[in-house]
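[Automated response] Your request has been received and processed.

Submitted sequence:
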Amino acid sequence: MATTHTPNTSKMGTEQVDLSRALATQLRVDSIRCSTRAGSGHPTSSLSAADLMSVLLLRHLRYDWANAQQATNDHLIFSKGHASPLLYSMYRAVGVVDEDELVNTYRQFGSRLEGHPMPILPWVDVATGSLGQGLPDAVGVCLAGRYLDKLPYQAWVLCGDSEMAEGSMWEAIDKASYYNLGNLTAIVDVNRLGQDGPTELQWDMDKYAKRVEAFGARALVIDGHDVAAIDAALTEARSHPEQPTVVLARTIKGKGVPEIEDKNGWHGKALPQEMAERAIAALGGVNGLTITTAVPEAGTSAIVPDPDVAVTLPTWEIGEKVATRAAFGAAISALAVRPEVVVLDGEVGDSTHAGEFREVCPKRFFEMFTSEQQLIASAVGLSVRGYIPFASSFAAFLIARPYDFIRMAGLSEANIRLVGTHAGVEIGQDGPSQMALEDIAAMRAIHTSIVVYPSDAPSTAALVKIMADTDGISYLRATRGAYPVIYGQEEQFPLGGCKVHWAGADDTVSLIGAGVTLHECLAAAEELAQSGIAARVIDLYSIKPLDRDTLIDTCRITKGRLVVVEDHYPQGGIGAAVMEALAEAEVPQLHVKLLGVAKLPMSGESAELLDAAGISARHIVAAARELMGFR
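Generated structure:
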């Protein structure tokens, strides 16, 4: 396929050309003003893209600024979030941010005009600033538009050339092409200079285009300062509903300020006051141009959420052996009756059991293959459109590979549900590369996160349903092996709760576990009882939030003797959560044994590995006896 170069012509009349240029000049002036006033920011990255955004605002963006929740609004995402001076200057131009807020509050404490865009602003869909994320998020937005909402909105994404070195950008282009997302247009500001010198490809537009086309998208190469060429490219982009478009715009960093145009060393630096004054004067001074964008026609989504629809969760008999990953598959399939529930998979749906949702509801199942960054980003984008996305994969890959996407989703306060299966040494012979032993710590650290770790099928099903109804980022840890059902169908599992087993007034030690280690704790308690030691067992299925009150009461009854057991590295896991909860509690002196996976595991049978890690029932018994003064 030959590289496509857009013609240097368009239907823009002289008046429109002049207006676009005038608006671009105002955007440059305002970008300089707000960043110089703040003493920080990225004006040069804003100046290079001003012409692109001027034409987009005047001619192509369909947005009702008075109604940011309008279902048919286009989406504008700044993947190069550091160009926030440009974005906020655009907001001033359309009248939703005034002069005082732009110039005097940008980057100031308490301002909603933060250094990088945040969804505290109603026109910002997702937090950006960590490069390589805005375009992947937009894929999820566009999946909703094409396959679920079935509405004609377009997602326009301003990208930087530096972030084109991120693999996530190519995952996004690939999946956009696979799903025929013609409602996605990426506009790449190819200004040649990154933070510390030239970018990898600099102005090699042909190489950029060949890469884009190799991933299945249309490449339109233009002069990013020629408003007529920009208009022609954006017009063409929207006219191909079956294929995403990447507009590759050759620009000059710092455009409009000759002193710094195409000069290294100005990235992320505000212009000094005197230089800013000279530049603004040369650009014609401050202007108050206000423009009106096209408003989309009203419309409603083809899918209407129904959170009140009756959901019949699956049932199991006590004693029946069921893997919690299998219970997740059954529970999420039951939730298919709710039209807003969507499932995304990382090409392991047969193992995670997420594939069972595809069997009952194929239209709301999206395969992201082994592109875990795109898996999370698509979930974030779908949540922007109001859907309830569940994304699942092996825990080791769901958490580790796309962790920055999860972190940024926390900053966006996105509503996504994550299910990581095959966690811990329990998985057995696949070995340590497949064993998530860091996931609890990682997810506990995420803003807005909820972390749950069920031990049997009914608790899993109940928590999956609760996740669907709970805002924020929720993470369910599931194990590979099958374990006995211990709870009846009537049991409730509220977030922030726990379950206490073998409780008595004369208990002398508490055994705390979750997931697989709960079963080891129960076995240990039974063995301890045979030797006259009364041990209560706590199922800490809700790790964040955690039932602090029950822990404190337990400590008072057992005189602070706790054995905490987890199939996870000791750092940041269940033991750390328990100790943090008790740090300032008024309890007797604590006598705690923390049992976790303290050394590198290897392949083997599950029972062998649990025992080798020191977290099997016999090690729990030994730890409890030591706390009691027995050897």
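Summary generated for your ticket: Residues 321-484 form a domain with the Rossmann fold fold (CATH 3.40.50.970). Confidence is low (pLDDT under 50) at residues 1-9.
If you did not submit this request, please reply to this message.
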